[in-house]
From TrEMBL:
Keyword entries, A-Z: Kinase, Transferase
Superkingdom of origin: Bacteria
Domain Carbohydrate kinase PfkB: 24-278
GO molecular function: kinase activity
Stated name of the protein: PfkB domain protein
One GO CC term on file: cytosol
Taxonomic classification: Bacteria, Pseudomonadati, Chlorobiota, Chlorobiia, Chlorobiales
Pfam families, alphabetized: PfkB
PANTHER family: RIBOKINASE, SUGAR KINASE
Organism field: Pelodictyon phaeoclathratiforme (strain DSM 5477 / BU-1)
Keyword match Glycoprotein: no
Length: 303
């Protein structure tokens, strides 16, 4: 089934205790699209870039059968740029520079041929833009939305309005507490799910992820990695693996949602092993399936 992805495309300057990478291809939609491309070949992107977004970057996306007709190229502008430095624990970071450039005036226009998309994944952009995208889609089977603390603090009412039209909401633990106003994640999940989305995923970084549905709670572990080089984009990569798996399911059941969380976690665990998109752009299906089964084995107990 087709997946429409709307979000940012960017260049990142990333510094961690274990190295540095400048002019690294990034952006929420880039990570989501590359990750989900291992599960389906029907991926469509809507975004905006400047003239500095070279052919090599488009060629990378095309090599993964990603349709980029919805990406606007502004000839006189520059692509969104972000620079950040991670602390030693890799859980906290300092933003050193943000240049919105052409992204500051991003006005998402969904091409006519994209408007019948069955799955829609909205990256962490302005909730008003997310709603504008949904107004252009005919009858999506499933809508997944991500956000960040900037929008939770700056546009909470707009975000709540958008959530009324969302099936699955993905946020991290600090965002869940901030948005719900409650420190307890179980209570936070109940409060947020009452806003619209029937399914909620709360990411907990190195402590895994929680899935909340109408039938209960599922806790997925984090993969025990010895080397973590760059956590940038891990959450978006998770979303890509998650929606990628669901797109190939005939019926979305609670079991398939749990499997999707593990596939998302598997993809995110690959992402952090190299800087930027380097790792997730060069995987194969056998690696992904092996990592998925490793996740299943982490919590399996033989009776």
């Amino acid at each position: 089934m087709s997946i429409l992805i709307v979000g940012s495309l960017a260049f990142d300057d990333i510094e961690t205790p274990f190295g540095r990478s400048d002019n690294t291809l990034g952006g929420s939609s880039t990570y989501i699209a590359l990750s989900s491309s291992y599960f389906t070949d029907k991926i469509q992107m809507v975004g905006v870039v400047g003239s500095d977004f070279g052919n090599e970057h488009f060629e990378l996306l095309h090599s993964r059968n990603i349709d980029t007709k919805g990406i606007q190229v502004i000839d006189e502008g520059k692509t969104f740029r972000w620079a950040g430095r991670y602390h030693y624990d890799m859980n906290t970071r300092d933003t050193l520079d943000t240049q919105l450039n052409v992204f500051a005036d991003f006005d998402p226009v969904v091409p006519e041929q994209y408007r019948d998309a069955e799955f829609v994944c909205l990256g962490n952009i302005d909730p008003e833009l997310q709603l504008k995208v949904l107004d252009q889609i005919n009858k999506p089977k499933l809508v997944i939305l991500d956000t960040m603390n900037f929008w939770i603090e700056g546009k909470p009412e707009e975000l709540k309005k958008t959530l009324e039209r969302v099936d699955i909401f993905i946020i991290n633990d600090s965002e869940a507490r901030l948005f719900s106003g409650d420190p307890n994640l179980v209570k936070s999940a109940r409060i947020i799910r009452q806003m619209g989305p029937k399914t909620l995923i709360i990411k907990k970084g190195e402590h895994g992820a929680l899935l909340f549905t109408e039938t209960g709670i599922f806790s997925a572990p984090a993969y025990p990695l010895e080397s973590i080089y760059d956590p940038t984009g891990a959450g978006d990569t998770f979303a890509g693996g998650f929606i990628g798996h669901l797109s190939r399911c005939e019926t979305i059941t609670d079991t398939e949602l749990r499997r999707a969380v593990l596939y998302g976690s598997a993809m995110a665990s690959f992402c952090v092993e190299k800087f930027g998109t380097d790792k997730i752009a060069a995987l194969n299906l056998l690696e992904i399936e092996d990592r998925y089964h490793s996740f299943r084995e982490l919590s399996r107990i033989d009776e």
